[in-house]
């Protein structure tokens, strides 16, 4: 293991002319000397280890694409440093490009009017992939991504799911160590999303690729990433595991308990809901938010009480027939961070 991506004190400012209002606004804007500074990325630092699968998330306009562009060397940072496997991507763009695969879900890197296979020939040439090597890799990718069915089809005729698979294969043709994915499942149906996710899991798990995934799809993040970085107004507001993020935000877990026959709450008659209770024989508290003749609905924060301790206590009120536990929705958690 070692650092694959190192980012230190990264900044990006954009200078955009102030748009004039009123008559001849367009022409006057052209001659304006007034500029507005937009700080799209402010002092971001992080390290991604070899073989990591990291999610990079944040609301629209937060600075995700700007960061990715600096990581790939397309944009020059206003301040700070980027190293991809020890190399500065802006100074050594070609060298770093050989190590990187990039997929922008919203924009294909394939040639619109050419058959898919022709795009691969051009890309293999650009990245100096030897013909035998290209054939071997396309055979492998073709199998994993099921490319054969549209091999001869012009890119413009592909379905969105096919186009995305074709683009992902294109990004891997030169066998890069690192993959940047920007919205790789956008607009896809459930089945197409699932096949792309499975492929990405394989790519990371079996082929050891380091992956940075940008997406608005929280299911992608939850199913694929070990770590997430949250960017908001150009600054990192969270960096760590999804588990820790859940704990930190502390949305309640909801536990529904069904009793066999009757049960007895440890409270006075006619107690009002929600009913706050302390755990017996352990640290912590939880709330009963509903109670009917055979069911109770409990809300508990993970930090405040362990589910097992709650169940042990509730087991004393009656005979438990069924337990249903609902973790807070990851989407809701993320909204709290944004
Ligand atoms: N070339 C540019 N010139 C001026 N401002 C820019 C430029 N590129 C991006 N910005 C601004 O920088 C901010 C960050 O944009 P960026 O595209 O990085 O956001 P994002 O997190 O990728 O958003 P989204 O989820 O909508 O794709 C925005 O306010 C955007 O308008």
Topology record:
Blueprint: E1 3-17, H1 25-30, E2 35-49, E3 53-57, H2 64-72, E4 79-84, H3 93-97, E5 100-104, H4 116-126, H5 131-145, H6 160-172, E6 178-182, H7 190-205, E7 210-214, H8 218-224, E8 227-232, E9 235-241, H9 242-249, E10 253-263, E11 275-278, E12 285-291, E13 295-300, H10 307-314, E14 318-326, H11 330-337
Parallel strand pairs: 3-7, 3-8, 5-6, 6-7
Antiparallel strand pairs: 1-2, 1-4, 8-9, 10-13, 10-14, 11-12, 12-13
Helix pairs in contact: 5-6
Bound molecules: adenosine-5'-triphosphate (ATP).
Adenosine-5'-triphosphate (ATP) binds next to strand 1, strand 2 and helix 2.
Please summarize what this structure is.
This protein has helices at 25-30, 64-72, 93-97, 116-126, 131-145, 160-172, 190-205, 218-224, 242-249, 307-314, 330-337; strands spanning 3-17, 35-49, 53-57, 79-84, 100-104, 178-182, 210-214, 227-232, 235-241, 253-263, 275-278, 285-291, 295-300, 318-326. It is of the alpha/beta class and 338 residues long.
Structure, explained:
With 338 residues, the chain is of the alpha/beta class. Helix content is 31%, strand content 31%. The strands form three sheets. The chain has a six-stranded mixed sheet with strand order 5-6-7-3-8-9, sandwiched between helices. The protein has a five-stranded antiparallel sheet with strand order 11-12-13-10-14, with helices on one face. A hairpin with a 6-residue loop joins strand 11 (275-278) and strand 12 (285-291). Helix 5 (131-145) packs antiparallel against helix 6 (160-172). The longest helix has 16 residues, at 190-205. The structure holds adenosine-5'-triphosphate. The site of adenosine-5'-triphosphate has 12 residues, from strand 1, strand 2 and helix 2.
